[in-house]
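QUALITY CONTROL LOG
STEP: pairwise intake check
CHECKER ROLE: data steward
CRITERIA: each record must contain a sequence immediately followed by its C-alpha cells, with no blank fields

ENTRY 1 OF 2
RESULT FIELD BELOW
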Amino acid sequence: MVKTKNEYINREISWLQFNARVLQESKDHRVPLIDRLRFLGIFSNNLDEFFKVRYATVKRIVDAGKTGKSVLGGERANDLLEEITKIVIDQQTRSLEIFQQIDRELREENIFIIRETEVNESQAEFIRDYFFKKVNQELMTIILNDLTEFPLLKDTAAYLAVKVVMKNGSSKGKHNRYALIEIPKGIDRFVVLPKEGDKNYVIILDDLIRFCLDSVFTMFEFESISAHMIKITRDAELDIDNDLSKSFIEKISSSVEHRKISDPVRFVYDKSIDKDTLQFLKEKMDIMGTDSVIPGGRYHNRRDYMGFPSLGRHDLMYDKIEPLPVKGLSMKGSLLDMIAHKDYMIYAPYHTFSYVTKFLREAAMDPQVRSIKITIYRLASDSQIANALVNAVKNGKQVTVQIELQARFDEQNNIEYANFLQDEGVKLIFGVPGLKVHSKICLVEREEDGGIKRYGFISTGNFNESTAKIYTDYTLFTAHQGILKDMNKVFGFFETNYKINKYKHLIVSPHYTKSSFMKMIDKEIAFAKAGKEAYIKIKMNSLTSYKMVDKLYEASRAGVKIQMIVRGICCLIPGVEGMSENIEAISVVDKFLEHPRLFIFGNDGDPKIYISSADWMTRNLDFRVEVGCPIYDPDIRQELLDTFDISWRDNSKARVFSAKQDNAYRKRTKGETELRSQVEMYNYYKRKLES
C-alpha cells in the first residue's frame, strides 16, 4: 500500500532540501568567506550528481510509461520531474544571488574576480601571454553551422556557445556563425593575475578565453563575437551487459565508457544568451520539452569553486585542525600488541587516520602475520592503503581484497587499482552478484602460541586518507575473537555467496540488518508499553526505507522517545500528533561532512550500541553487503553516548526536520550558550587526552 504525502517526504525532494542546507552554509556569515565560496562549489557538485543519478532514475520511469508511485512515496513520476525542476530553478536563482553577495564581500577584502571587460592594460598583456602559452593549444573549437551531426557533448563539461556576427551578413543573421569551445579541464579554472599593491586579482578561465576570442576566430571577418556558457548532464546509471565471455572488470569498464553517450537529463544555459543562439542549439541538440532545461548564470560547473585559490588569505578560511592521538594508543609502539589488550576507537578527522595505515603497515611486515583481508569501496588517488597491501604481498603474506567496482563515480579509479593490485599478486574478489559490497572491514590473521589469533578494524566510512580529513567517521580496532570470527564469515560469503552464514555479533546486510534493527525497535516498544524507559538514538546519512519509517512511527505511537540526527535525506516526518510526536530529528551541516552511522537502543538500562556502514535506505538494507558492529568496551560505549549527545545539543549548525521542510535552524532558549558540535567534539577529545 502506498502512503500519502502526509506520511512520507519524497526522497528526491528531501535530497534537494539537504542540498539547500549546503547552500545555507554559503550564505552564513559565520562561515569564512572563501569557504562560503567553496560551499557554493559543493552545492553545484551535489546537484550535478543528483541529476546524473536520481533525476535520471525518475526520468527512466517516465520514459518507460510508468507512474512510479509505488517507489516514489505516492508521487507520480511526471509530477515529480516538474516539481524537481521548479525547486532547482529556485535554488539556482538563490545561488546566483549568494554568489553576487560573496563577490561584493571579496572585493571589500581586496580580492577581485574580474570579467574580461574589466581587464587593464598590464593585465591584458599577462592574459594574452598566458592564453598563448597554456590555453590556446588546449582549446577544442567546433564550428557548428555546416555539421550534419551535432557533436557529442561531454557530461557536465562546460562549453562556451559562441555567436560570430559576420561583416556584410544579412539583417536576419543568416550568415552568423555558431561555434562551441570546450573549457579545458587540465587548466586551473581560476587564473591568478599579478598582484597590484594589496589587491588580488583572479580571472575565471571562461572569461580569459572570452577576452581572447578575436585570436581564436581570426579566419572570419566579423563585426562582433559573444559567448555564453552551456552544459549538459547525462544519465549516470550503469547498464551492465550479460555477455558471459567478458570479465566483470571488462563489463564495468564498458558500462563506464557508455556513460559518455548516455541520454541527457539536464541542459543548463546562461539565461542572458541570445534567443537565436539558444534556439539554434536546442534544434541541433534535439532538446525536447520533457528534458530539464535550466536557465542559469554566466558560469557553470560551479563545483570548481571547491578549489578556489587561497591567495594566502588564511584569515578567510577555516582554521585547519591538528588531528589528535587516541588516548592510550601510541603510534610509537606495536598497535597489534595494544589492540590485543583493549579495543580502541578513532573518530576522524578529530583523530588521526594514520592509525589505519600504521596498522596495515605493521601487519605487512610482522613475521607472524599470515594473511590480511580487506574490503575497498573508495580509495584516495595516491593510496597508502593500497601500497601497504602490496608491501604485505612482497613480504609473503596472503592478501585478499574485495574491491567494489561499482562504487558510484569511482568505478574507473577502482578498475585501475584492481589491475594494479592484481598485477602485484593480491587476490581480488569482485563481490556478490546483484549486491554492492559497501562494508568497511579489515581482518588480520596472526600466528600466536601455535594457533591463529585475529585482529581487525571496522569502520563507518571508507579507507581513504583524503576524505578522512573532511568526513567524520568512527573506526573500531578490536581483537575480540567473536567479532572477528564473524568478520571472517563475511569474507567467506564473498567467495561462496550461495551459503548464508549465521552471526553471533555482527549485523550483516542483506540478510539480517533490517530484521535485527526491527527486533531491537520491537523490544523498545515492549519496554514502553510496560511503562519502562524506552528510547532510540540514531545518527546516519539518510533514512529512505519506508518500512523502517513505519516501524519508527509505530515506536513513537507506543511512547518510545526517538532522537535522530540525519545529515541528508529523511523521508520521515517528525513531531506529527498521533504519528510521530515522540520523534525529534535534526541535520547538522558544517565544516566536516557528517558520515557516521551510530545506533543506540535503551534496552531497559543496558544500552545496545552499534556502529555500521549502513544507512536505513532500501539499497543498504536489501541490496548491499553491509556490516554493523556492537560496541562492548565500556569506555568506547561511553564515548559514543557522549559524542551523540554533543551532536544532539548542537544549536549552531543544527537544522530541524519538520513537515514545513524549511531547514529552520534550531533556536536557542533564552540564556543558552551557543554550542557548535564539531568544535565541541574536538575540544571533548582534547580534554580526554589531558585528563
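ENTRY 2 OF 2
RESULT FIELD BELOW
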Amino acid sequence: MPEADRKESSSATNKPKSAPQKAMEKLGLLRDIDLALHLPMRYEDETRITPIAEAQGHEGEPVQCEGEVLECRIETRGRRVLLVKLADDSGAELLLRFIHFYPSHQKTMAVGARIRVRGELRHGFFGREMVHPSFKAVVEGAALATALTPVYPASNGLPQAYLRRAVASGLSRADLNELLPAGVVPPTLPALRDALNFLHHPPPQARLMTLEDHSHPAWQRLKFEELLAQQISQMQAQRERALLKAPALKAKRAGMHEQLLAVLPFGLTGAQQRVSEEIAQDLALGQPMHRLLQGDVGSGKTVVAALAAAGAIDAGWQCALMAPTEILAEQHFKKLVGWLEPLGLKVAWLTGSIKGKARQKMLDAAADGSAQLVIGTHAVIEEKVKFAKLGLAIIDEQHRFGVAQRLALRKKLASMDLEPHLLMMSATPIPRTLAMTYFADLAVSTIDELPPGRTPIVTKVFADSKRFNVIEKIRDEVANKAAQVYWVCPLIEESETLDLNNATETHAELSAALDGYVVGLLHGRMTPADKAAVMAEFTAGRISVLVATTVIEVGVDVPNASLMVIEHAERFGLSQLHQLRGRVGRGAVASVCVLLYTGPLSDTGKSRLKAMAETNDGFEIARRDLDIRGPGEFMGARQSGAELLRFADLQEDSVLLQAARRLAPQLLDKHPQAARRQVERWLGSKAEFLKA
C-alpha cells in the first residue's frame, strides 16, 4: 500500500464509526466485493407515475403517485396523526396518513411542496388514501428511475438509502473481471459483471418471478461461481491435509483394542465393526485422519470412540475426548473409565468446574503423558493444557463446537510438526448429498444399525388442553411400573415475548400433582455440581420425575426412564426433538414420548410434529429437517457462524453443483492462480473454516 494511502487509511480508522458503518460491519460488508455480492431481497417499481384518478390499488401491489401538497395538519383523536392531502393534474386527491412521524415529515410535505409517494392504495371513508407510504420531495418533471429499485437485506441502524449508495459505490469499484479461463463458464450464463449489474438494477420489463425464485440466468451465474469457489476450497483443504504428517497409530496384535473387545459386556453390531475398521485403517496412515462418525441416537458411537482411543494409546500416544457439556463429558468419563481402567490406562478429567490443586494435577498428568486419555469440555483446548504426545482428538456432538475450537484442538501437536488424528462424532445424521458437499474434504463413517434389544419409542402428539390427562398417565406409570419420567421445558424463566410455563413452575405443579413421589429439577442456571447431584439421584432411581430444560438433550443415559413429555414441542427444532426423544427407549421397557403443543401451529410446526409421530429413524428425520429448513439453516452454516453458501441451493442446483465438482480439480491443477482468486473473491476469510 502506498504511504499516502496508508496514512489516509490510518486516519480513517481513528474516526469513530457511525451507526450505519457498524451495522454494515455486522453484516460482513467490509470489502467492495462484499457490497457487490449483497443482493436485493426484492424490488420496488419506481419507474412510472400513476395519475391519482387512475390509481385503483390492488392488495399487495404498491403504486407511485406525484402531486402538490394541498394540506398538512396534525389531528388528535386519541393519538396524534399526521394527515397530508395531495392533488395532481388529474384533479383527484390522495390522503396520506402517518401514525408515526417526525418534524422532518412536516417540513418535506409542507403546503405547496411537490412530492412523490409510493405505497398501497386503499379506498377509505375520505376517498383514496395511503398509510405510511414512502415519500420524497421532487422538482416538477424530475426524471423517473430507469430500473427497478433494489430493497436490500439490512438491520437496525442501516437505512435503505444509505445501503443503496454503499452498494452502488462498492459495485462500481469492485474487481469483477473474469477470473475463470475461457470455456469454463457454461455458455448459457452471462458475464459476472453483467449478471451483478442486472440483479442490482433490473430493467422495468424484467420478469420478477425469475428474479425472486433465483432461476434467472444472472442468478445461475452467481450460484455457479459460489459453488465452484466452495468446491475448490474444500478440495484444496483436502490436498493440504494430505501433505500434513500425523503419527501412524498401528494397532498391535492382541493389543488393547482386542483386550477392550474382550471385556465389553456386549458384542459389536456389524455397523460398529465396519466403522471401527475404517477408523483403524485411517489411524495407521502417516497423514491426519479427518473423519466424521455419524449415527442415530443410541447407535453406539461411544464404544467405537473407545476402541479408537485404545488403538491410539496402544501405539504409545495420548487421546483427548471433548464434549459440549459437563453432564455429557462426565457420562463419557464414567463409561470409558469403566472400560479402560481395568486395562491399566489412566484417564484424566478436565472441566471448567475443576479448580486448584485437583486441576493442576490433571494438567500435569496430560503434560507429562501419564494420563493416556483426557476427557473434558472446552477446558481441554485452553492454552494452558499441554499434551506430551496427542495422537488422537475425538470431538463429540461436533456441531456444538465452533470452528475455532476445533482448530485449537488440532494445534496441540504443533511443537512436533505433526497433526493429531481427528474423529468427530454426531448424533444428528447428515443426508449423503449434504455430507458430500459441505464435508467434501471429510471422510464419513455411518453407524446405520441399532444394537439389539432397543425397543421402538411410541410418539404421541397432544394439544396442551390434554395436559391434565398426561399428568394422570405419569402418576400411573410411576405408581404401577416404578418407571422414571422426563418432563422437558423450553424456558427456565418468564419471558415478555413468549408466554410459556417455565421449568420452575412446572416443577411446582408436578410436585403438587404427584404427592408422595420425588420430582427433581434440572436447568442451565444450576452449578455443575448441583446438576451432577440431581443427575446422579435420577440415575440411581431416587427421583421419579425429572423436570429439565434441554441440558438433558444429548448423551444422558438412564435405561429406566421410559416416558418423556416435551412441553411446547412446537418451539423445538426437528433434530432437537429427535435428540430429546432419544433419552428414553434406552432399556428393554417399551417407551413413550409425548409431544405437548400449544396452538395454533404454523405449517413448519405441523410438519415437525407429523415427522416425529411417523418415524424414529434419525436419517429420515434429517431428510425431513432438510426439506423443512433448507440446507444453509440445517447445517448451521458449517457451524462457523456465517453461511458458506448464500445463493446456491444444494437440491435445486444439483446440476450446477456437479459441474463445479468436475471443474474444481481441473482448475487447481491447470489454473491454480485463478482457483485461489476465485476462493478469495467468494469466501474471503471463511475459507479457513473449511480446514476444521
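INTAKE CHECK: passed for both entries
DESCRIPTIVE NOTE, ENTRY 2: The chain has 24 helices and 22 strands.
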